[in-house]
Each structure stands twice: as C-alpha cells, then as structure tokens.
Write a structure and sequence with these properties.
By secondary structure, this protein is an alpha+beta fold. 26% of the residues lie in helices and 34% in strands. The protein has seven helices and eleven strands. The relative contact order is 0.13.
Length: 245
C-alpha cells in the first residue's frame, strides 16, 4: 500500500477479532496508547457511521477464503473525529499452510469530498457521477455545461462517454475510476469532444465522494480545454526549443 503502509494491526481470525499487535503508526493516528489497544477489538475505532458488521465480515472472509480482502470504512479516532480509510486484510497462515489464525489489517487514508460539496455550484467545471457502472451523471455545474456547450438536461442520466472522441484514452479513464473507487484522488488528462466536433484536451481530477459512511459518487473536475491547434502549436514550440543550440 502506498501511504501509511506502516499503519497496521494484527487481529484474531475468529470473532471477536481481538487485536494482538498494533503498529506505533496506527496507535498514533487514532490517538491511543499502544497498551490501550491490545486485547481490544476493531470496535474501539468505530463510531456512529462505522459499518462494523461489514468490517468484521471482511476479516472473516479473508481468514476463511485465504485471500486478501479490501474494504473502505469510516473509523474514528479517540477524539471522535471520523477518518475514512481503506483497509487491506491479509490472512496470516501458519507455517504448515493451514487456516489463518490471525489477519494483518493494513490501513491507507482515503481522499474524499463530502457529497454536499461535490454537488454545490462553484467556479469549477465539474460533474458528479454515480460510483457504480455505468457511472451515470447526477449533477452538472454551469461551468462544465458552458465548456462543452451543452445543457444539463442533455447530460443528466448519461455518462461522460458522451464527450469522448476517437482520441480519448478509454483505458486510462477506466483506471482513474478504479483508483477513485479505492479511495484515492486521480489526476490526468484526456482528449474530449464538444457537440460541434471540437477536440479539447482537458486536465481532470477524479475525487471519491463520501455520502454518510460510503463512497457513493465521484466528482470529476475539468480544467484547461486546449483545442487541437493550440496543442499542436505548443508541441511544435517545445520541439523547436529542445533542438535549439
């Protein structure tokens, strides 16, 4: 895992999944002394919006199936502040390859935007999508509509493939959605197309959107909007400067 890979606990493979070892980083993030965590369960880090049943089920599934299981869940620190995290649960088999007796729970912080911020009108060209396939558009900012010369009614309920062109890297778009589903902001650029067939190169950022206790939507923010001729001119100038003495 990328960030906070040193944040982990070791828990028993069977209910109530008592914590047997805790990393200093995990204890520090949640504001507990290490000694106060040992012997407790993951419920210690739960709060009013924590789906503790889903978390316990994920541990049980990893232990029973022998495969790594991931879950995005809202945990709480000692001060009662919510922390959205992605947990990777790894079964720890014994030396003989038998059933897992313990599971390693590794934590990674998630990036997220509250739903009310995602759908609020601001100065950005953005859309909000459902976080499940086919990723239908549920909200459109006026700046996005203006960028592509389209009205809300032509966009709501559709997908962003409406603005894709033959030059759009569909594979890259799919990878960005998958990354956002794992709770991490994704940044990149894509070629898109307006209804009058103008090709636009845009920078996009895809944010996971949190509604109550789960990632239910993605917020996609667009910037730039360079036409083909402009990009060609920039590339030509760059090549000229690169080869100049």
């Amino acid at each position: 895992m990328e960030a906070h890979s040193a944040s982990w606990v070791l828990v028993g493979a069977v209910q109530p999944h008592k914590i047997t070892v805790v990393s200093p980083a995990w204890a520090e993030i949640f504001g507990h002394a290490e000694g106060d965590v040992l012997g407790r369960t993951l419920r210690l880090f739960s709060g009013p919006l924590t789906n503790i049943n889903a978390l316990n089920q994920a541990v049980a599934d990893a232990a029973r199936g022998g495969d790594v299981v991931t879950v995005v869940v809202l945990l709480y620190n000692k001060q009662g502040e919510g922390v959205l995290v992605r947990l990777e649960i790894v079964p720890a088999s014994d030396d003989d390859g038998g059933a897992a007796q313990q599971c390693l729970v590794k934590m990674e912080h998630c990036d997220f935007v509250p739903l009310k911020i995602a759908v609020a009108e601001d100065a950005r060209a953005k859309v909000t999508l459902l976080a499940t396939s086919p990723y239908s558009i549920t909200n459109v900012s006026s700046q996005f509509a203006a960028l592509y010369g389209m009205e809300d009614k032509h966009l709501l309920g559709r997908t962003l493939r409406l603005i894709f062109s033959p030059r759009t890297n569909g594979q890259r778009w799919s990878e960005m959605l998958q990354g956002a589903a794992r709770g991490k902001r994704q940044d990149g650029s894509l070629w898109t197309c307006t209804p009058d067939m103008r090709q636009l190169l845009v920078c996009i950022s895809v944010f996971p959107v949190l509604d109550v206790d789960a990632i239910t939507h993605f917020m996609v923010v667009f910037s730039g909007g360079l036409e083909t001729s402009t990009v060609a001119g920039i590339n030509k100038q760059w090549k000229a400067e690169k080869h100049s003495p």
